[in-house]
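Worked example (supplementary).
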Amino acid sequence: MEVTTVDKNLYYVNISNFLSTWVYKDEDLCFLVDPGPSFTIKLLKKNLEHLKIGSNDLDFILLTHVHIDHAGGVGNLIEYFPRSKIICHPNGIKHLINPEKLWRGSLKVLGKAAELYGKIKPVPKNRIQFQKNVRNGIIKVIETLGHAPHHQSYIFDKTLFVGEATGFSFSTPEFIYMRPATPPIFDYDIYVDSIQKLLSMGLSNHRICYPHFGMRDNAHLMINHGYKQISTWLKVINNFYEKRKDINFMENLISELKKEDQIFSNSKLLDKEIRSRNSTGVKNSIYGILGYIEKKKFKNIKV
Ligand SMILES: [Zn+2]
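After joint prediction of all chains, the assembly is encoded as:
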């Protein structure tokens, strides 16, 4: 089985070493965060059965955002769980009801990988809701736009399910690896506003749970790593902007980022397969930041 028990009632299901689907279950409440793409829903279902979550037990499916690797399989999952409510940012709801645009966007950004994730099944409107406070405020919803225009994070019982609001983190007990999660079309100011909002909440006594991947104690410290990292990346990429047409631009930029950003340089400690899968995400994040700088330069605004 791919289930890891983190704490009493809190688990994560390891979906092919790239997505942690977080699952909480006690006598009164059962929810999961980010079910993953349609390709892996059967695997998730099997793991939920292992956790003795029956078809009437799952109260909520919380989506941090509706990108295909997080939410592409939600339409398949709800067929097994007829009474679960999907909680999603208002900007994401239309994409779940009619996923055509989301699918085309996924093909454009991810190419073949989108096909591997699998088609996105439409979700009936009456299964999706936006709530600010889920189950009378036991689960708090925090709008954290930036990685996507339909991104939100959740706080429940000293645990922050952060999504990709502060970046992509592959952290093990031995080391922390992080990089910004800033694909095009990216707005630095919105992304940083969300990070600052999370920092202002003082979550040092909360654990932080990532969809990619795993968890850490002291959410505040980890959010702060994400904050410092995005500032460093903006500075370094801005310094490299004029060289963007050079043949070795990407390679040179990445090695400069590794020099300036210790946590990003820990990519050398990642498993080979994860590292190669992650390299597309690194480039997409760089393109997002480049696009932001370009837009600013076009408007004659100093970055
Ligand atoms: Zn995403």
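Two points are worth noting when inspecting this output. DSSP finds eleven helices and 15 strands in the chain. Residues 2-228 form a domain with the Metallo-beta-lactamase; Chain A fold (CATH 3.60.15.10).
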